[in-house]
Amino acid sequence: MRKKSVEEPSAELSVEQTFLQLDGILEKLESSDTTLEEAFACYEEGIRLVKSCTEKIDRVEKQMIVLRGGMEDGNE
User: How far apart are the two ends of the chain, measured CA to CA in Å?
Assistant: First the structure.
């Protein structure tokens, strides 16, 4: 079992909230006054958010497959 670290606040965010944060990161990356260090930190945060969001979506997809499988067997 994986421990939650202080670096994982996205574990508590919804997919929609994660997308909003990613939009903010993109705006900052596109800004001409963002330093290289800030851009790198934004990139790292963005990658972490995308990974978290992907894991949540994968979990939901797996649940949907299980539910659909039960319905196809006539077990509604």
Answer: 33
Helix axes 36-72, 15-30, angle to 10 degrees: 150
Task: Kindly state the tokens that stand for 48.
Answer: 């972490």
pLDDT in tens, 30-63: 999 999 999 999 999 999 999 999 999 999 999 9
The H-assigned helical ranges of the chain are: 15-30, 36-72
C-alpha torsion angle, residues 66, 68, 70, 72 (rounded to 10): -140
For residue range 12-26, what is the model confidence (pLDDT) as tens digits? 789 999 999 999 999
Kindly report the pTM of this predicted structure: 0.69
